[in-house]
Design brief:
With about 425 residues, the protein is of the alpha/beta class. Helices cover about 35% and strands about 20% of the residues. Strand 6 (about 145-150) and strand 7 (about 155-160) form a beta hairpin.
Length: about 425
């Protein structure tokens, strides 16, 4: 098979050398066309050595061969990796300012783009529109992998592994020729082309809403009622859900840490603001995880001015009113036909004379009606703000309680793994 391998100007270009080797070792003839920017990351000599063919990106080289027309006409498959935001934009708008973009305009066979860029660039409306345009014209644009990006950020935007791109490229070529391996169903090939090539992304295509941090209930313009929640566990849950391939909506109350890159961020302050945001986000979510520490009460009245301490006057009496039970309300809306979400609650419990932590948690699970309840034992110096956590996952189905212990990232991974397993069962709304 004659393959044109276009290489975009991103740091992930170094991984494409492995993809080129996979193609050549499988017996395919590969012509590499790097953009000028790509040669700043991997030089032309490397591409020539690995492909065994001369490499250029200049439309004025070998003019007698009319490369800017011939390469696209002759290619059985064109693969572009990494497909940067710039390359996707040029391809979508039909630009032809170098050999690669000319070749894309002349393509007669299937074209596959493997994107790689920062999460915010991938999720930008301009990039989304360009991807939609390319797909509407018949090009295949893989979903980027989720994980660590350049620097400290993580989220969707990593170049899929070379093996995954290789598998998707061959599957696309087979579909274009009307050939499907007898051991591989059409559905399986479609999964490959959608980027679902790994069991490590069990939430691919799912929308997961996660709340985190502690709400603050205003007493006056200066003071508030709050709690000790740091938001670390919620942030870890969001990172784990992103790693599992989900689109993550992150409802952030007060947090001591920054939300992970790649989430759809919604900032909230009070329990009432969180309620509104959660009900709105849940409408088209597959999963709702309420990990925020929501204040049970709020001041009945909020002073417009700072409450003063005056000599000779008694301390003011603060009257409290109950905040809405957001978790229970989400379940009620879901069960009344508002969707089929899997709903997960978090409970920070302490034991007392009426029962231990687990007994209180089981009672709460029955009252709330959520599908799963993640319970931890809290107290001074325990859980809030700490790096480690120890929880028990309880199920409305009555499954054996599942412990999870370790770093907050470890606990988050266990919760997200359980969520993925629950989604494979019968929908909780049926």
């Amino acid at each position: 098979m004659r393959i044109v391998l276009g290489v975009g100007g991103g740091i992930a270009a170094y991984k494409v050398a492995s993809l080129l080797r996979l193609f050549t070792e499988a017996g395919h003839k590969v012509t590499v066309i790097p953009t000028e920017a790509a040669t700043r990351f991997v030089g032309i000599a490397t591409w020539e050595a690995l492909s065994g063919n001369p490499v250029t990106n200049n439309v004025f080289d070998d003019v007698d061969k009319v490369n800017h027309v011939r390469l696209g006409h002759e290619a059985d498959l064109i693969v572009v990796a990494p497909a940067t935001a710039d390359l996707l934009a040029k391809a979508a708008t039909g630009q032809a300012n170098d050999l690669l973009t000319n070749t894309l305009l002349m393509a007669h066979g299937p074209v596959l783009f493997a994107p790689a860029m920062h999460s915010e660039m991938w999720q930008h409306p301009a990039t989304c529109a360009n991807v939609e345009t390319l797909r509407s014209r018949g090009a295949t644009v893989l979903e980027p992998a989720v994980g660590r990006l350049t620097g400290a950020d993580s989220g969707p935007g990593r170049l899929p592994e070379p093996e995954a791109i290789f598998e998707a490229a061959l599957a696309l070529a087979d579909l274009a020729e009307g050939v499907v391996d007898s051991n591989e169903s059409i559905t399986g090939v479609a999964d490959v082309l959608a980027g679902n090539t790994s069991s490590e992304t069990p939430l691919a295509g799912r929308i997961v809403t996660i709340s985190a941090g502690g709400t603050r209930e205003a007493l006056d313009p200066v003071r508030f009622l709050g709690n000790r929640s740091s938001g670390k566990q919620g942030a870890a849950l969001a990172a784990a859900a992103l790693e599992a391939g989900a689109t993550v909506r992150f409802l952030a109350a007060h947090m001591d840490v920054e939300p992970p890159a790649g989430v759809e961020l919604v900032r909230v302050e009070s329990a009432l603001e969180l309620r509104d945001a959660a009900l709105k986000a849940a409408v088209d979510s597959d999963v709702v995880i309420m990990a925020a520490a929501v204040a049970d009460f709020r001041p009945a009245q909020v002073s417009d001015t700072k409450i003063k301490k005056r000599d000779g006057e008694d301390a003011p009496v603060v009257h409290l009113v109950r905040n809405p039970d957001i978790l229970h309300e989400l379940v009620e809306v879901r069960d009344s036909g508002g969707g089929g979400q899997l709903i997960v609650g978090f409970a920070a419990e302490t034991g007392d004379d009426d029962g231990d932590v687990l007994q209180h948690a089981m009672d709460k699970l029955r009252r709330k009606g959520c599908d799963l309840l993640v319970v931890n034992h809290v107290g001074v110096g325990r859980v809030f703000g700490q790096e480690d956590n120890s929880v028990v996952i309880l199920s409305q189905r009555g499954d054996t309680p599942q412990p999870a212990t370790g770093s907050k990232a470890d606990v988050a991974a266990a919760v997200i793994e359980r969520v993925a397993a629950e989604l494979n069962r019968v929908s909780p709304a049926t």
